[in-house]
Structure formats: C-alpha cells, structure tokens
C-alpha cells in the first residue's frame, strides 16, 4: 500500500508522533493505520510525542572525558523535575548521549540547526556527483538516469548527511537498530517525563592539527566494555 502524506498526517493527528516515526510505522505495517498506532504505542513514541510540549527545565549537564583526556564532551539533557534528573535511568541516558557525541562527533543537534547555506552547498556538490555518474553511464553504454532520478539520488544523500551529522538522527552506538531519538523516546515512555537534549560541545585534543586519525567509536566502546 502506498504511504501517502495524507495517511502520515492522519496517523500523526491520532498519536502525536513525529513525521518520520509515523511514516516508518506505516511502512512497517504496510499502511495499516490501526496496526501503526499499536506499533507506535508499543515503542512509546505516541506517549513521547504527547509529552513533547511540556516544559523541561531541569536535568543535568553531563560530562564525558575519554581515556587519556583526548576527547571531552559537555551535554545538557533536560527533564521536567529535579527528582527525575537524579534517577539512575536519567543519569545513564545522559551518559550514553555524552558518549555518543564523543564517539561519533555530530556537528549539529538536529536538522533544524543545519544552516540553509550548508544544505544548499551539499546539494550542489551531490548534484555534480550525480551528473558525473550519469556521464560515466553514457560512456559505458548504459542509459543515462533521468533528471527526476538524479534529484531523488540527491535527496537520498541529503538524508544520509542529516543522519551522519545530526546527533538526534544518528545511529545509537550501543544499538545499531535504534537512533538517538529512539533511545530518548524510550526513556520518555519509561520515565514519564519530557526529555530533550538542549545543547552540547565536544573538544578533541589537537583538533585542527594534522595527526593520525583513530577509531574513536571503537575506543569509546572499549572503555565501557561494550
């Protein structure tokens, strides 16, 4: 069944879930809106969305210093009450997010923070890449891709850019089947309060100086015994 924008909107209106979560649920249930509602509820996403408008001004500024002091992270994670901020579940979530930032080095918190000029530049670079690939097809005797297909290729690569550079859309380092947003939403459903990441900063020793590049993901995960 085709997943239309109208169907996604209907599901969002019913559950309050985010657009991408609603679309994903519909894809997984082959467009069955009743099953999609159940799926969102099972994942805690519907409950999380309903709490999203509530003020979260408490929380913690979590720090993470990688072994040897080579990477340092500060991240502010907010919740609604000081009581929840002191719980192990919330503290563990904040630590996991700090380690995520240390390991994967996101540039932005979410896609809304990415400047329009950055996306426009990426689109131009990706479009040129797509055109080069099309020229190679012609040289190899293959039928060139239509302009509409090239545009879809660029759109897909822009989505990949968001997933690689925006913290909330990154694959979670402890579970590749989840994004950071998925993990936060699960915590919201479990804890019962709105939770959000407000801001973060990451420092790398000698950043900007040419030096050997290490696999920081492997190092960070090794330090927590994963």
Automatic annotation (TrEMBL):
User: One Pfam family of this protein, by short name?
Assistant: EF_TS
Source organism superkingdom: Bacteria
**Location relative to the cell:** Cytoplasm
Q: Please list the residue ranges annotated as the Translation elongation factor EFTs/EF1B dimerisation domain.
A: 49-207
Coiled-coil region(s): none
GO MF terms listed in the record are:
translation elongation factor activity
Matches recorded under PROSITE patterns = EF_TS_1 (PS01126), EF_TS_2 (PS01127)
The GO cellular component terms are: cytoplasm
Family membership: Belongs to the EF-Ts family.
- Name-wise, this protein is Elongation factor Ts
Q: What is the lineage of its organism?
A: Bacteria, Bacillati, Bacillota, Negativicutes, Veillonellales
Gene that specifies this protein: tsf
């Amino acid at each position: 069944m085709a997943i239309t924008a109208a169907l996604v909107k209907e599901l969002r209106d019913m559950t309050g879930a985010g657009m991408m979560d609603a679309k994903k649920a519909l894809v997984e249930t082959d467009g069955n809106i009743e099953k999609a509602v159940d799926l969102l509820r099972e994942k805690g996403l519907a409950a999380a969305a309903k709490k999203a408008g509530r003020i979260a001004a408490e929380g913690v500024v979590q720090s993470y210093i990688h072994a040897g002091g080579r990477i340092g992270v500060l991240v502010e994670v907010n919740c609604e009450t000081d009581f929840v901020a002191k719980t192990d579940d919330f503290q563990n979530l904040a630590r996991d997010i700090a380690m995520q930032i240390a390991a994967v080095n996101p540039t932005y918190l979410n896609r809304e923070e990415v400047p329009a000029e950055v996306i426009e530049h990426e689109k131009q670079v990706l479009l040129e890449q797509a055109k080069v690939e099309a020229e190679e097809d012609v040289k190899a005797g293959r039928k060139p891709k239509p302009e509409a297909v090239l545009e879809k290729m660029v759109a897909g690569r822009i989505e990949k850019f968001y997933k690689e550079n925006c913290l909330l859309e990154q694959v979670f380092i402890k579970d590749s089947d989840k994004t950071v947003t998925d993990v936060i939403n699960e915590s919201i459903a479990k804890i019962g309060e709105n939770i959000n990441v407000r801001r973060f900063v990451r420092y790398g020793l000698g950043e900007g100086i040419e030096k050997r590049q290490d696999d920081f993901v492997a190092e960070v995960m090794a330090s927590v015994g994963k």
